[in-house]
Amino acid sequence: MYDEINISEIIESKNTPNCLELTKAYSLAALLGLICVLPFAWRVLVHKEQGNWDQAIPAYYFAHLELFLGNGSLGVGVMMLLALTLERYVSVCHPGHARPILGSPIRVVVIIPLITTALYIPILFRNKVKTCQLLPENIIIYQRVEDTKYLNNPMFSVYKVVLELIFKVIPVILLAGLNLKILIVYRNSCDKRRKMTLSRKTSGEEDPKKFAEERRLILLLGSTSILFLVCVTPMVLLNVTLSYANLVKFSYQIFRAIANLLEITNYSLTFYIYCSFSEDFRNTLLRTLGLSNTNPIRGGVKIPQPTATTTITQHKGA
Does the entry feature the keyword Transmembrane helix, yes or no (predicted)? Predict the structure, then answer.
């Protein structure tokens, strides 16, 4: 009984300070990534792909910083999620191992953003700003255009593939494997506890609420992992093949829209799932919004923090 409760608390990051710090950093990175989506959406809806700005500052932002900030934030989120899952895996599956396995949480929270930012620096130069003069009014406008010479460089093509491997393909494989192992260990622990409970009680004295909570916990861990896998795969193909030449193709535009819709769905469904079923998640959200009293809201099951949220969008509208 004690072992099963301890595993539950570890998965929920309640008794591991390192996991708590990584969870906060992961949440902040995901929030920054979502904030960066807002100017991107405005640019796509109002200014389209190239844009027509009458000031240089927004033009330079969308040409150089839009993808860098958005993808950098989401890249940090993916690495934080991977580090968090690794800590949970070691805590649950190898409890005798010296922890924390990644060292000081402050060090991890600092190093991951620095390395991720450095890896995304080449994205700053994939576009450039073109100045145009409209006659006869002599109005100056600024447009964002791709640097075709830079993008067609073989080294940049290799860089894009490596970036996708680091921030999408490898994390997907590792997250799926680690979460699967955590689920197996947790399920075995639940089965042992259930057998011990039933050996002391008659079948009519079972605790159906406790067993239902265990099933929901296992289901949600698995479903959010699958959701992450399904939503991130199209983005890998999109980011590797993204170019202005492909953007003019109608079929590619459809694929692009579907890939981005899946990414938004990943964020939205994960948020709704945990708000609906996690008491701790709801209380934290309400406290953040200033809508909660000191007494927590009761109801729902205590489940782990999200373990499969989000991915990187190499081209935000993409």
Answer: yes
